[in-house]
Design goal:
The protein is an alpha/beta fold and 293 residues long. It has helices spanning 12-23, 41-48, 59-66, 83-97, 132-143, 150-157, 161-173, 175-178, 183-188, 192-207, 213-219, 222-230, 246-255, 259-271, 277-292, and strands at 2-5, 28-34, 71-77, 101-108, 123-126, 235-236, 242-243. The strands form two sheets. Strands 2-3-4-1-5 form a five-stranded parallel β-sheet, with helices on both faces. Helix 4 (83-97) links the parallel strand 3 and strand 4 (101-108). The longest helix has 16 residues, at 192-207. It is globular, with a radius of gyration of 22 Å. The protein starts with a strand and ends with a helix.
C-alpha cells in the first residue's frame, strides 16, 4: 500500500485525482472513504458502497465484488495509530481470495515518516511545499496573465498549493478589491467584533497543533466559530478539534497591520491561562521573521 503524507492543502487529494483521471473506468475502480479508528476497512467500504443484492456483510463476498475490476484503488483519509495492523489484515485477506490488484492509498496529514513494525508499507512519500519559483509558475498558470499582487500571493501562500489556488480564485472573482491596498483585510472579511477572536485563534494555532472545542468556546461563541468555519478561516480536523491554516496566519502576519493587536492578545491569553509564557516567545519570533522576510 501507499502512504501520502503532509500538511493539509499540500496536494494529496490533487495527486490522487490525477491517478483517478488516468486509471479510472472501464478497467479499474476507485473507492474513497474516511477512516475510523478500530473499524475493519472492508466494513467502512461496505457502509459507503454496499452490495445491492445482500443485506448481510460478508468479507469474502464483498472482496469478490470489489475485485471484478483489473485494479481496485481504495483511498482513505486517516491518522489512526492502528491503521498499519488493519491494512495488513485487509491485504492478507484480499490476496487469499483474489488475484487482481488491490492498491490501498492512505492520505495522512501527519508530517513525519511512520515507524512500522513490519514492511506492509510499500511506498511512503511526503509532499513538500513548493519552492518560490514553482509557486510563481503556479500563480501564472492559474491567472493566465500578470497580476500586480502576484508576489503577495506567493508570499502569503508560502508554497502551499491550496492557498495559492484559493487566493488566485479570489483574485479572479474580486480583482478590484484584490488590487486595492487592503486586499488582505478584504479577503479576511473580519468585522470589528470578530477580529479579536480570530486573532486569538491565529495566535493559538501558531503554537498548538489543534484547539479543542472547549478552548474554542472560551474564545468565541458558536455563531462566530461557525462564521469562521464557513469562511474557511478555521478548519475542523479529524479529531474534531479546530485550527487556523498556517497560510492564513502567514497572510495575517505579512500584512503587519495586526501585529500590535496580536501582541496585545498574547498578553490577554496568558492572563486567561490559555497560553503560557514560553509559547509567547515562539509567536514573537514568528512575527519578527515574517516582518523581515
Amino acid at each position: 500500500w501507499i502512504r501520502l503524507y503532509g500538511e493539509d492543502g499540500i496536494g494529496k487529494k490533487t495527486l490522487v485525482s490525477k491517478l483517478f483521471q488516468k486509471y479510472r473506468y472501464p478497467f479499474n475502480k476507485f473507492y474513497f472513504i474516511d477512516d475510523v479508528d478500530g473499524i475493519n476497512i472492508l466494513k467502512l467500504l461496505n457502509e459507503k458502497y454496499p452490495l445491492n443484492n445482500t443485506s448481510d456483510f460478508n468479507n469474502t463476498l464483498y472482496m469478490h465484488n470489489l475485485s471484478k475490476s483489473r485494479r481496485t484503488f481504495v483511498i482513505l483519509e486517516s491518522k489512526s495509530d492502528d491503521l498499519n495492523e488493519r491494512a495488513t489484515q485487509l491485504l492478507t485477506k484480499w490476496y487469499e481470495v483474489n488475484k487482481n490488484k488491490l492498491i490501498l492509498i492512505v492520505l495522512d496529514r501527519a508530517s513525519e515518516e511512520t515507524i512500522m513494525n513490519n514492511q506492509t508499507v510499500v511506498f511512503e512519500y511526503k509532499l513538500e511545499r513548493l519552492i518560490k519559483e514553482d509557486s510563481k509558475m503556479l500563480v501564472s498558470k492559474l491567472l493566465k496573465h500578470n497580476c500586480i499582487k502576484s508576489d503577495d500571493i506567493v508570499k502569503a501562500a508560502d508554497g502551499l498549493p491550496a492557498a495559492i489556488k484559493t487566493l488566485c480564485n479570489y483574485y479572479l472573482k474580486s480583482k478590484n478589491h484584490f488590487e486595492g491596498t487592503d486586499w488582505i483585510e478584504v479577503f479576511l472579511r473580519l468585522k470589528n467584533d470578530s477580529q479579536k477572536a480570530f486573532l486569538d485563534f491565529c495566535i493559538l494555532s501558531m503554537v498548538k497543533d489543534n484547539l479543542s472545542q472547549c478552548i474554542a468556546r472560551e474564545i468565541a461563541d458558536n455563531q462566530t466559530i461557525e462564521f469562521f468555519m464557513s469562511s474557511n478561516l478555521l478548519v475542523k480536523l479529524s479529531n474534531n478539534s479546530i485550527s487556523v491554516p498556517m497560510w492564513i496566519i502567514k497572510m495575517v502576519l505579512i500584512s503587519e497591520k495586526y501585529n500590535e493587536q496580536i501582541k496585545h492578545e498574547i498578553e490577554y491569553l496568558i492572563q486567561k491561562s490559555i497560553l503560557i509564557s514560553d509559547e509567547k516567545q515562539q509567536i514573537i519570533a514568528l512575527i519578527e521573521k515574517n516582518s523581515t522576510d
